[in-house]
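Memo to structure team: turn this sequence into structure tokens by end of day. - J.P.
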Amino acid sequence: MKKLIKYITIALFAATSFSCDHYLDVSPPDAVAPDEISDSNYQFFLNGAFRQATPDRDQFFTADARGGNYDYTNLSGMNSTWGKLILGGTNIDDNLPTADGIWARQYKTVYNANVIINAFYNGMITDNETNRSIRAEALFLRALSYYNLMVNFSGVPLIRENTTENLPRNTEQEIIEAIIEDLEDAQESLNSFDGATHYVSVEAVKMLRMRIALWEGDHTTAHTLAEQVINSDLFQLDTDYGRIFRAVENSNEVIFAFSNRVEEQNTRFSQLFWPYGTDWSGSYFVRPSQDVIQNLFEEEDKRKEVNMQVIDNDTQDDIVSKYHSVQPIIIFRISEAILASAETASSTSEGLVRLNQIREIRGLSPLNASDIAGKEWVDVVLEERQREFYSEGMHLYDLIRTDKAINLPNIQNKNQYLLPIPASQRNLSQGVLEQNPGY
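Reply from structure team:
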């Protein structure tokens, strides 16, 4: 990973351009070198880290494209990046721009987080409650970035102190252990959710820890964490499914979201999905897959009309309609905890109670044991998760962690669960970075 971090600089922004509006109301310089970090600008470094960590539009939906939720359109075509992700197999190689983008973006966040974390540990920052909270949010960002790297590439170089050395890949288990360590450290200095979705709360930490437990197949830990978040009574399922994504700050479902302000990141998810000439005109590079259109949603499901518009049953014009204007980018919401609790319940009857919480508020009839006779419980939950989190960047990762991705038409073998290590990074590493099997 030759000197990737050598080319990264942390950006600091004017007080009117913060990722989190609780930041200090003073104006920083346009840029500050990492070795100039101090109590007076510590908050601004965190602000820059949040801005860098805000998900990129195209990278965010990789798991939907590879997981069977989309088809490419005439405007993108089979030879485009989207076409290659959707078709999979030998169409994906180590020159894939998406893989390169994910790698670079996540390691930039790691670099920024390391600057903040190590300044505290190295005594450059005063040890007080405010600064411990800043350090804790940076720990969370680093953990989230390593999670994003792990689910796409498996083991990657673990960088806790910024360096210009070429580092080999750590194992996936070592990455998981590092993530858990960061989250446990962060939780000690964070508060519970107070209504502001762009703050990192104790509950946000538990949600990421829950995802790790699910990834590892540790159902006991995942269930415990899910129930803790649910029973905090800080969040409620929204009766208006569309409001969750189109008026994020008015929904009580959201646990954590990147603020994504128009004057800052201005990331417009709608531009990927809507055709030119519509209210949310964009590039129209992907559309709902035929499997989604025909099989995923029942007619009475409130999520159907929010997630897609089917035009005269002509798939050439079908639209993924979930996103409209620029909104905060949701990372965790309470429905994920509820469905994780359902998946990891000690019995099917207990799991059905949680599953039906989601189904009923989304307009569907509750399921009973006879409705799912002959089905694997995990398949029942995964189908509900696909409906609930359609176009939220999760689906392929759910299929990988349950070893169901092998059933996708674009996955020919389990090596293809992962993306290739980008050729650009392997070249920079002078051969230190080993490629994933099959690429």
